[in-house]
Write a structure and sequence with these properties.
Elements lengths: L1 E5 L2 E5 L16 H4 L3 E7 L2 E6 L14 H19 L3 H4 L3 H18 L10 H12 L5 H26 L3
Antiparallel strand pairs: 1-2, 3-4
Helix pairs in contact: 2-4, 2-6, 4-5, 5-6
Length: 168
């Protein structure tokens, strides 16, 4: 029988046979999966665990801010148009259509899902590429990549600036 030791608590588990995969997610004990361990060590085949001094804390991201989303969508449109304008041979007369598709998808993401640093996802950019390809617009990979690079360079930073100016 395995013995887990915690300060002030001892938990006994029946012996288990471990075979590949070593720790399948579905077989974890509910008691063990809800605990946070900081140290594991073995002594004569007995596994000892020390409980961490601080429990896990869930971080709740803030809700999207509509005013920020509007402002950032305008900046995104201008930045993307400036970047893709350098690729006239790729986009030709479809440049404004390509930009509008990207802006619509990114604006929806900012309004519904973006809640600050750590919440910038890749899905809107893959959605852009798929939407551009479905509409047979040129340069889908280039437009999606340029959009992603713009967002990585500006969105989180602009969020921090936006929130540092807002009254607390």
């Amino acid at each position: 029988m395995a013995l887990l030791y915690f300060p002030h608590t001892t938990i006994h588990f029946p012996p288990i046979r471990i075979s590949p995969p070593l720790f399948p997610a579905k077989t974890k004990s509910a008691a063990v999966s809800s605990l946070h361990f900081s140290t594991f060590f073995s002594e004569n085949g007995v596994v000892w665990c020390r409980r961490a001094t601080t429990p896990f804390r869930k971080y709740a991201y803030p809700d999207p801010i509509p005013e920020f989303a509007e402002s950032e969508t305008r900046k995104f449109r201008n930045g993307l148009l400036k970047r893709l304008s350098k690729e006239k041979e790729t986009f030709g007369d479809d440049l404004s259509d390509v930009v509008e598709v990207c802006v619509q998808i990114f604006g929806n993401f900012l309004h519904k899902e973006y809640g600050g640093p750590g919440t910038l996802l890749v899905e809107p950019f893959t959605d852009m590429m798929v939407a551009l390809k479905e509409r047979d617009l040129p340069g889908a990979p280039l437009a999606a990549r340029a959009s992603l690079l713009w967002a990585q360079n500006y969105v989180d930073q602009d969020w921090e600036i936006w929130n540092s100016k807002s009254p607390k």
